[in-house]
Design goal:
This protein has 9 helices and 12 strands. By secondary structure, it is of the alpha+beta class.
Length: 266
């Protein structure tokens, strides 16, 4: 079995409150994009995991793919498997690659072992792995609330546009991003915002992390400003960073000189 976990971007991200469990409540539209890791899952005599492609700088036992397998093994008694992850989505970049990989392990094991588990049950398992993980069970545009695990479908499409992704190799600590963020006290009509033309989002959508992260890393704001100068309809930082994203009506040129840069046709 070969699966293709996609990346996501956050179309707007608002921090709406601090929770008693130490997390923050958010509101954000998560949107899957055609940038993929590759995941191979096969039955095996003994469990094994290997990764190729981009280097994963983490302990093996902390890998979310392995944790996803352990959850399914514990709850459903599944057999041993071999997992091969080909990593192409940058890590710690606000694109949700690790979360997508874990969710697709859950999805793949559900299919491989013919468990016929519901999406809602898979989403509950995914929520144990991380706030972004439940989104990737369905991998459709969704409005995320709570820690990110409270999801509802939303009608928004970026069809026939282009998306430029730039990650300059800056590591933004999630802890740092949250420690300096200001809590929004507004309410948002997401259905109305999502129905508007992308060109109008510049004044109606924002990422609350940008204010604090841009103070620490002004070069990220420079990238955003450059995207607008070259014709982006809407430019923003995805998640807590540090990937900068621009949406264009015409295919943009590559800037060059960055650790990671992609131009996608949506």
């Amino acid at each position: 079995m070969i699966l293709f976990p996609p990346a996501k971007v956050n179309l707007g991200l608002y921090i709406t409150g601090k929770r008693e469990d130490g997390y923050h409540n958010i509101e954000s539209v998560m949107y899957p994009i055609p940038l993929f890791d590759v995941l191979e899952i096969l039955p095996a005599e003994n469990f094994s995991f290997k990764s190729t492609g981009l280097f994963i700088d983490a302990k093996l036992e902390d890998n979310l793919c392995i944790k996803a397998y352990r959850i399914m093994q514990k709850n459903h008694g599944i057999g041993n498997i071999m997992i091969h992850l080909r990593k192409k989505i940058p890590m710690g970049a606000g694109l949700g690659g690790g979360s997508a990989d874990a969710a697709f392990v859950l999805r793949g094991l559900n299919e491989l072992f013919q468990l016929e588990l519901s999406d809602s049950l898979l989403e509950s398992y995914a929520a144990e792995l991380g706030s972004d993980c439940p989104f990737f069970v369905k991998s459709i545009p969704q409005l995320a609330k709570g820690r990110g695990e409270v999801l509802e479908s939303i009608s928004v499409s970026l069809k026939s546009t282009y998306m430029k992704l730039i990650n300059p190799g800056i590591h933004v600590s999630t802890k740092m991003a949250y420690s300096n963020v200001l809590v929004s006290n507004q309410t948002y009509n997401w259905q109305e915002i999502s129905s508007q033309k992308v060109d109008s989002w510049r004044g109606n959508l924002r990422n609350d992390f940008e204010l604090s992260v841009f103070k620490e890393f002004p070069e990220l704001k420079d990238i955003k400003d450059k995207m607008y100068e070259e014709g982006a309809s809407y430019a923003f930082m995805s998640g807590s960073g540090s990937t900068m994203v621009g949406i264009y009506n015409e295919k943009p040129k590559r800037n060059g000189g960055f650790e990671f840069e992609e131009v996608l046709s949506l």
